[in-house]
Write a structure and sequence with these properties.
CATH architecture of the largest domain: 3-Layer(aba) Sandwich
Number of helices: 20
Distance between the termini: 52 Å
Strand content: 5-15%
Bound molecules: adenosine-5'-triphosphate, magnesium ion
Oligomer: single chain
Radius of gyration: 26 Å
CATH superfamily of the largest domain: P-loop containing nucleotide triphosphate hydrolases
CATH class of the largest domain: Alpha Beta
Length: about 500
């Protein structure tokens, strides 16, 4: 025991010393690249050096962004996309899970594709690919999203029917498509399978029935978002400026994932077939925000793209609240990681395990406010400086008004000293406002609260907040869920409610 303790103290000492003798941030020459070939992001925390991001000396242009809700992931992505379009004329395709970029894209004059709301994607579209290759890709997507991998005969039947649908529409399976031919759809494939079943000659009708059932989920009338001719030209996707593929109106996660996988496959093929040309800059940035299975499944093209690295002329940005939704291969292979505020230990362990940053950085990450980030970059040559550093804040295009909910009035001195519980929660003005609106607080009451916070350096003590909410007739259970949504620990919530006296008032 004593030995261990001693060792612990010693390694702490060593850590401190090396922190002093080695620079805690990369040198300015690395942080600050040629302004015509890089994007300004913000200033570093310790030496206040402006940091401009460029992929030119990194292993690849791909980026992972993680952080809790409200930490600033989407804000960062928007900032990056806008500036990349200035610097490199970069196009962007946003695979928008929750529809959160839609309004912004419209505002900036981009194109919104609303799947499930009038727009369709035919996942059998070839955009220059050979039908046999597309058929394989469709099977891969089905393997990620359904149980088809467990049923080899059903898989075979499905693949065969897809290929037959292409042949039936006049395509040569092993040839790149001649122009002018219209691609078949999944509905055609279902019809082929049904015809085979009705013929009654196939040996295992149950297998056939199950294969039909599985495919029909994506071709049913009203849910045939991927089984009708596409309403957008996939060949032009990466040349259309800013494109938002809004998936939020699709009925469930599987439909969203199918769309995301399909788009990634298509883009990857386009980039492959066009080949790497030695133009500088990024042709396109593809954003996967909250990508769930698309970023976690080993078979997904998100992982292939990140692994194969530089040869694609597009940068993939994967953003998520839940780092465990992102395959470790992505963290350890992307050229840049942006880590915004992380709260849960489990998530922190996962990221620290993948990226190997110090406990110093870990501690900083857990205390981040909105827009603060740790940045980790993988340089092509190994250099002798820390590869993870902290940004004071991501400097976006809009000003930030941060409001603080201060918990110090209910924490006891020892808790504050031990630094185990979060002392304050920061919110951007609109974010806090929206939360209050969600709990039916009237707009006059909200204005009143902000006025009182403005008089108090934009902050409010937690007990005052709870009493305010209660006086505006927000029920106790709503106050509790409000506090939960701020990610305050349950035991602390009990204490806050008890100390506020609202239960009896
Ligand atoms: N660096 C920043 N500077 C100024 N404002 C910021 C910054 N980062 C975020 N914000 C503001 O904070 C709010 C939340 O940010 P954002 O929507 O980017 O969070 P998020 O991490 O994408 O959350 P979610 O996971 O819920 O999508 C927004 O109102 C945004 O404008
Ligand atoms: Mg977001």
């Amino acid at each position: 025991m004593t030995m261990l303790k001693l060792q612990h103290i010693m390694s702490n000492e060593i850590a401190k010393r090396s922190f002093l003798s080695r620079p805690p941030e990369p040198p300015a020459s690395v942080l600050l690249s040629d302004p015509f070939q890089s994007i300004y992001i913000g200033t570093t925390k310790i030496f206040k050096v402006p940091f401009t991001w460029s992929f030119l000396n990194l292993t690849n242009p791909h980026i992972a962004v993680v952080g809790i809700t409200g930490s600033g992931k989407s804000y960062f992505v928007k900032t990056l996309l806008i500036r990349a379009s200035y610097v490199w004329n970069t196009n962007a395709v946003i695979i928008d899970w929750a529809g959160e970029y839609r309004a912004w894209v419209k505002q900036t004059g981009g194109v919104v594709v609303a799947l499930g709301k009038g727009d369709y994607l035919n996942i059998m579209d070839l955009s220059g690919m050979r039908p046999i290759d597309r058929a394989k890709q469709i099977l891969t997507s089905l393997e990620i999203l359904t149980d088809i991998a467990q049923y080899p005969e059903q898989k075979r039947l499905t693949q065969e029917a897809i290929e037959n649908a292409y042949s039936g529409a006049g395509f040569d399976l092993a040839e790149k498509p001649a122009s002018g031919l219209g691609a078949p759809t999944l509905s055609d494939v279902v019809v082929l399978l049904q015809t085979k079943l009705q013929e009654g000659t196939y040996q295992y009708p149950a297998e056939l029935e199950n294969a039909i059932y599985r495919l029909r989920q994506f071709a049913r009338e009203g849910e045939d978002y991927f089984a009708r001719p596409s309403t957008l030209d996939l060949g032009k996707l990466v040349e259309s400026g800013l494109v938002d593929i809004d998936l939020s109106s699709l009925p469930d996660e599987r439909f969203r994932a199918l769309a995301a996988l399909f788009i990634l496959q298509t883009l990857k093929e386009q980039m492959r077939s066009e080949g790497w040309s030695e133009t500088k800059g990024l042709k396109a940035i593809v954003v996967l925000d909250e990508a769930w299975k698309v970023a976690s499944d080993e078979k997904s093209d998100a992982i292939t793209i990140v692994r194969e690295g530089r040869k694609y002329q597009f940068g993939l940005i994967v953003a998520s609240q839940n780092p465990t939704d992102i395959n470790e291969a992505i963290f350890s292979n992307v050229g840049t990681n942006f880590i915004l505020r992380i709260k849960f230990e489990r998530f922190m362990n996962y990221i620290q395990g993948s990226l190997n940053f110090s406990d110093f950085i870990r501690n900083e990450i857990s205390k981040f406010g909105v827009g603060q980030a740790a940045v980790e970059m993988a340089f092509q040559t190994s250099l002798r400086f820390p590869e993870t550093f902290i940004l004071e804040r991501i400097h976006g295009e809009e000003p930030l008004y941060v409001y603080v909910i201060d918990l110090s009035d209910i924490l006891v001195q020892s808790e504050i000293a031990a630094n185990v519980l979060t002392r304050e929660y920061q919110f951007e003005k609109d974010e806090l406002k929206n939360k209050l609106i969600e709990y039916n607080v009237s707009s006059e009451a909200i204005d009143g609260m902000f006025a009182s916070m403005d008089r108090n350096q934009r902050s409010m003590k937690i007990l005052e907040l709870v009493r305010n909410l209660s006086s505006m007739n927000v029920s106790i259970s709503n106050i509790v869920s409000f506090l939960k949504s701020m990610s305050i620990e349950d035991t602390l919530i009990t204490r806050i409610i008890a100390s506020s006296g609202v239960e009896h008032g």
